[in-house]
Structure formats: C-alpha cells, structure tokens
Amino acid sequence: MAYAGMPLTDLDGRVLGSLCAIDSKPRAWTPGQLRTLSDLAAACSSELRLRIALDSAEKARRRAEEAHERLELLAGLSETLAGTLDVGAAAARLTGAVVPLLADWALVTLVGRDGEPRSVTAVHRDPACATDVARFAELMPTRLGPESVTHTVLRTGQPVLSSAATLEDIRRASDDPEMGALVGRLGFGSHLTVPVPAPGRNALMGSITLVNGPDRRAFDDGDLHTALEIGRRAGQAVGNSWMYSEQRHVAEVLQHSMLPQLPESPRVELTARYQPAADRVEVGGDWYDAFAQPDGDLIVAIGDVAGHDIEAAAAMGQLRNLVRGNAYGRTDPMDELMSRLDDAISGLRIRAAATAILARLRPAPAGGLSVSWCNAGHPPPLLVSADGTVRVLDGRREPLLGFTRPVPRTSQEALLASGDTLLLYTDGLIERRDRPVDEGTAELLDRIAGTAALSSAGLCDLLLTAADSREDDIALLAVRAR
Description:
The chain folds into 3 domains: about 1-65; about 85-250, Beta-Lactamase (2-Layer Sandwich); about 260-480, Phosphatase 2c, domain 1, CATH 3.60.40. About 40% of the residues lie in helices and about 25% in strands. The chain has helices at about 30-80, 85-100, 130-145, 150-155, 165-175, 175-185, 220-255, 310-325, 335-345, 435-450, 455-465; strands at about 1-10, 15-25, 105-110, 115-125, 160, 190-195, 205-210, 270-275, 285-290, 300-305, 355-365, 370-375, 380-385, 390, 410-415, 420-425, 475-480. Strand 6 (about 190-195) and strand 7 (about 205-210) form a beta hairpin. Helix 1 runs antiparallel to helix 2 and helix 1 packs parallel to helix 7.
C-alpha cells in the first residue's frame, strides 16, 4: 500500500487539511507525480481560500446589515414612541418595533407605584401564536416568583442574558405549569431582559424581555448593548407618557370638580355630560350649570371660555359663579341678566372672552314650559320634539361676553311641550378644522333626528359616542320636559 499527501493551507499558512493519493499496493512516487500532486494541492488551497474569503465576506455583510438595521431601529425608535402619549400604546409600539428584527417574541413589563409588575405587553412574530403570547403576558404579573428573571432585573436594575435557555428556567421562575406549556409552544432558546429606567430618577419603570426560539441564533453581547439602549430610550418615551397620563388625570379631576351637581326638578329631567379632548392634557373652559330659583323657576346655562389652560379654567369657574350670583333670586328678563353679566365681567376686570347661553324655564299658562333665553355668541340651542323632529332655535346670536364696551342684549322665547328636550352644547360637538361649522351642525341634526325613544341620558351618550374625532372639549346639557 502506498500514500502521498500534500497540505492544504490558508493565506496565513495554517494547514486546513491535506490532498492525498493512495494506492492499494506499494509503489515509489516519481518526482513528476509529486509535483502534480503539489499543483493539485495548491489549486485546492486556492479554492478553499476563495470559499473562506467569500464566507467571511458574507458573514461580514450580514453583520453589517444587522448593524445597519439596529442603527435604523434605534434611530427611528424615539420617533416611533414619541408618536403617542398613551402608556399602553407606547408599550405596544415598542414590542412591535423589536419583533422580528431583534427577537422572535418580546415582552414589555411596566410596574406600579409599589415596583411590582402591573401590566405586560407582548407580541410574537408568528400571528398564530398571538393567543398564547397574550395569555403568557396576562399570567406574568401574578404568576412569576421572586427568583424569576423579570423580578431579578426589577430588583437589581441589572440586565440578564441567557444564551442557552431551557424550560427549566421557566419552572424555576414560576410554579404554574401553564406558563411552561405556553413557553414550549412559543419557542425558548435564548433570552435577555434589560431594565427600563425612569428618566431623571433612580428608579425603574419596567423591563424589556427579548426571546429567541431554538431555531434562531442565541443572543450575544451585541444584542445586550442594543437592548440596553432600547431600554434607555423606552424609559424616556414611556416616562413622558406616564407623566402625561398623571397630568391628564389631575386636569380631568380638576375640571370635573368645577362642574355642578344637577338639581332635582319635578318639571324636567336634567342630564349633563362633559368629555375632554382625547389628545390634550390642558384643562378646558367648557362649562354648564343648572339651579332652581326660589319661585320654582329653573335657570340653565352653558358656556365656553376661550383658551385651554389653567387661566381659562379659572375664568370658567369665575364666570359660572358670576352667573349664579347674578341670576339667583332675580326675575329679570334674560337679556337684562346677560347685560348684568357683561357689566360684572368688565367691572371685576375678568380677562376672558367667552360664549354663553342663559335660559329660564317656567310653567306656561297653556301647559308645558316656557323657555326664555339669551345667546352671547354661543352655538344655538336645539329643540328636540317628542315626535323626533329637531329644530334649531337660531335667533339673534349676539357678541361674546367680555367686551369692554356694553352691547345690547335681547331675549328669545320658545315652548317646551311634555317630552320635548332642550339641548345645549359647546362647539366641540360640531367644529372640526377640516370642515365648515354649518356641515357640523347639519351632521348633528341628522344624528339627533328620530331619537325620540331615547332618554335624555341616552341622547347625550349617543352624541358623545359619535364624536370620535373630537378636537375640543364637549359639554352637553339636556333638559327634557316631563
């Protein structure tokens, strides 16, 4: 038996293998045969070097593409998260941004004031896994033990990377067999969890968990650095959303605290609604009021102070109190009460421009209720008859309140029969930037027509539900004759 071999080398001279010639019986290799074998080995080495170079170039290309994708993700992440001030929407956008680019599935855990998990948002790259990943997110706040990765990261503020995860990790984290079964279906090969720091505070708002299935490469230190940067940027965006939510809650509480409790009346059914604009944290100037006079008459009012800030809210509170103090116990015509209100605003130097309607309801000699009102630049009231027809009480609409020079005011009158409804509202119900006010009013009339079977509360709820793209606060006051 005979053997001759030549080494196969890379560009650095390292031996990668050999090219062998083998004969079944002994023989002496001639110099020419060995040269041929050497030439063949050199050709094989060149081919191997080319394949190695191409493979290295392909790997480098893939790494460059991954790095570019990550840079694009980080560059667009802040803008993506800044597109909403809702905490839940921000968490959903975050998970959607990292799956499937960085992970097969991802979870964003947000904590409550006690530092414990409060809500979890999850997404999987496979739509067929949507139910399982949603169930896993639902279980996480209550079924994870103190030794789980999520609790460890929230407790220490340090990230955790596991390049080779097993279902035993889940069993150690939770004694709930359902979670292990869910993870088995979702795929669990490697995972990493990073904190979401609260900007400007030594505290955490939550954590981000990325998970890859066994068929995808394991997470490495590069993924960890990317995830840490995502957590930092998420902290800024979610922190802004969190702060907005808290400020909005305070503003709404303040706004509602300024709105009155409606009186009970044997003659009318009173219903009011107030709904702030969905995308603003400022307190608005919309208001309504209703109170009974000593003689049994009912005074109702609605108005809107220009502006959407704390000054507008303060002016709104002053104006509502002025209406009560100016009208209570007086039997003056409504135009005179509105003129007195003009004088009070001017004399007290209340810096506010406002629209308003003041109305008095009293029994009519022939039955029903007599309505007398004065309109200072406000959208006209509507009369919804018991048979479902709608009429705009669009008499003379006079200048706004708050002008320095007195303006003449006039009263108007209408009759409210049993079952009829007087509807007062602010302009947020009909105004949009993309259409004339007349179109908004016509749409409102179409919406109300044929709603006689609805209660006054049902009517108000219908109007608020339909105002889905509102750009301003809405106040409604419905007065239905019994």
